[in-house]
What we know:
The complex is a heterodimer of chains A (122) and B (281). Chain A has 6 helices and 5 strands. Chain A has helices at 4-10, 13-18, 65-71, 83-88, 98-103, 105-113, and strands spanning 24-30, 33-40, 43-49, 59-63, 93-96. By secondary structure, chain B is of the alpha/beta class. Chain B has a single domain, classed as Alpha/Beta hydrolase fold, catalytic domain (Rossmann fold, 3-Layer(aba) Sandwich), CATH 3.40.50.1820. At the A-B interface, helix 4, helix 5 and helix 6 of A face helix 5 of B.
Amino acid sequence: MLEALKERVNNDSALVRRGRFLSTTFLLEVGATAWLIAIYEGRIVSVTRGPFVMPSSSFALRAPADEWEKFWSGRPPPGSNDLMALIRRRVLRAEGDLKIFMAHLRYFKEALAKLRPAGASA
Amino acid sequence: MMARFEPIIGRYMQLDLFGRPHRIYVEEAGEGTPLLCLHTAGADGRQYRALMNDRRVTVRHRVVAFDMPWHGKSSPPAGWHEEEYQLTSARYTDMILTVMSALGLEKPILIGCSIGGRIALHLALEHPGRFRAIIGLQAGAHVDPYYDLNFLHRPDVHGGEVCGAIVSGLVGPDAPEAERWETLWHYMQGGPGVFKGDLYFYKIDGDIRSRIAEIDTRRCPLFLLSGEYDYSCTPDETLAVARSIPGSEVTIMKGLGHFPMSENPDAFLGYLLPVLEKIAG
């Protein structure tokens, strides 16, 4: 499912424009499954599924699969509607160089919300 | 085409606060029972624009909102450039009571959201005789920090971008797009370190958990309204406050988030108007 991220983000020209100063690779863990997501100047370059031997990333976002499932639903319930809501409930762990994550927080929130069903809001 | 002016009048007030001269921006609309409105951390009085534009409110209330020092169109005091802004319970209380006296607000209804909801609990405890009624929006007794607040104020992270992005998910899912982004714009406009300085009160200094049970609603009626989607002050936290204060009235507002009066005014007024009716008696 995460493979769809590349096309959905790159097709949103406003989101890509807001990310034009963002180039990084971050690790996303959905339960036991790891993904490396590479971004260059706001465009998603690659979404690669693990397992990895020595993954290099600027930061990692890790949450159980059922938490991501709620986050990616069409109308997420209270507490599951935003990355900060997951962090607040201590179910999403953000680790690594979080300056990149926080400086581009709107981009990461809106990019990951792209995996919601079409028409759902960020 | 003629301009259509809103009924809101804004003025600048010269006022001594904490022993220093301040220039404070204050807006008001309507006539009748004073209704003093307190904005959230890192924002300003524009959050109450819909209340001031709604005849159902202004026909019987003098609705007043001021921008706290450092916020909106209120300046920080001279010397600010060498200081770190930090809001404390004592200063917040002093500021509100001083503004009330300066504007001649006799026994107003107080409505405050988030940090405004928190100080509303402090005022209900310490100064109940000064208010006709108190309405706490998104009012909890305490919030533990859940992210590194230093990201809100450092030169290598854009403060406006990060403050807007931090709070964006606190807007409920049913908010009209225009009101959602108006609400977030206010956050994006905040001065460096101001949101962070407000959160010093919200997350550290303003903890009132050990004292809320002492609030006596016979001295001042207390109403608590909280949005279902608020994960900063969660419905559970507001319900916990209500359970520990006999006589308080609590409502969880469906589909709303942390900024009900600003993010979704129509839905919010559906909850507020019955409360104002009840206070009017």
